[in-house]
Amino acid sequence: MSVLLPLEDALAQMLAAAVASSAVVQRPLLDALGLALAEDVVSLIAVPGDDNSAMDGYALRAAEVSGALPVSQRIPAGRVGTALQPGTAARIFTGAAIPPGADAVVMQENCERDGDLVTVSGPVTKGQNIRPRGQDIGVGETALAAGRVLRAQDLGLLASIGHATVSVHQPLRVAVLSTGDELREPGSGELQSGQLYNSNRYTLGGLLRALNMEFIDCGIIADDPEATARALQKAAASADVVITSGGVSVGEEDHVKNQVERLGKLDLWKLAIKPGKPLAYGRIGDTPFIGLPGNPTSVFVTFNLVARPFLRKMQGITEPEAPALQATAAFTVNKPGWRQEYLRVSVQQSEQGLVASKFSNQSSGVLSSVSHSNGLAVVPPGTVVAEGDSIQVLLLDLLT
Fold first, then answer.
1. Overall fold of domain 324-395
2. CA–CA separation, 357 vs 363, rounded Å?
3. pTM exceeds 0.85, yes or no
4. What would the pLDDT profile of 339-365 be if each residue is shown by its tens digit?
């Protein structure tokens, strides 16, 4: 278990073991944003429900446009017209149903109205400016598939087919424990020599809430084997997944790894990545466990690389991993490493395309390196990077 695993192997092992939660809840649409669909949504109606006009104008028969046509009726949106009399036109507005007999709509800008007569200029073809019934969604069509994370536009789509509620996977409950006698909570007073404010609690809480998961704050564990065991057991009993920060390295005060092995099983430990080598995965009883490193930057990086896709799959999401893109490196890496490195970068659009700029200090203890970045540039083992090289970037935030 001391052999360092490539990230791809570790992630494949973890994702294979991640089983989507069977807990399903019914949510009103506005309360379902960011959650994963638990089942396919099949439309029972056609959208639009009738052939309708794509613009304001006149509905008519394309073969009858020569000369002036009497305007026989007026059809605003929400009203249903009568069958179009031969040799006439109907004044029609955007979204209104096409009257039986009409096969084209001419926009009002191409028409000249004189009293009750309208003259059309330019060619007219059948189907012109008509949105056919079911153009958006047909009866029996799958509007959205299970596993999709609902976005604002998806809520609108579901509303358009008459859904007021939707079945989604119940948000995961994730227990987070911080380890280290040196940790103090912000607001608890001034730090003494050797003490640190517990930033990992807030980083992890924010990351979990951004995934629409329930953050169970289990506080700080003392550097004591029995206290660690009690805290882990309590967390496992209250959550779907347990995440710790710190306590999984090789130091004498790192008790989390040993206690997980005692209470359950450790499936993997140590990854061939930088930052974030001392990462652990296993189970406390039947509850999945992810042990993240203690350094603040390592916590952020390993959460996004490993914990995030694992949690998203358990949440029932079908595409759990972060998107990747190619960008031009605005930096150099002159010394090849033996582990795959994830550099904190800011990706911006330029005249030459996407450019990735490296944060100046890449130490795993420098939290500002992730606060001022929106992506992780991937540098494979044994690789050097020259300025101008194309490099893969895992996008973690919107482009700035």
1. Beta-clip (2.40.340)
2. 16
3. yes
4. 999 999 999 999 989 999 999 999 988
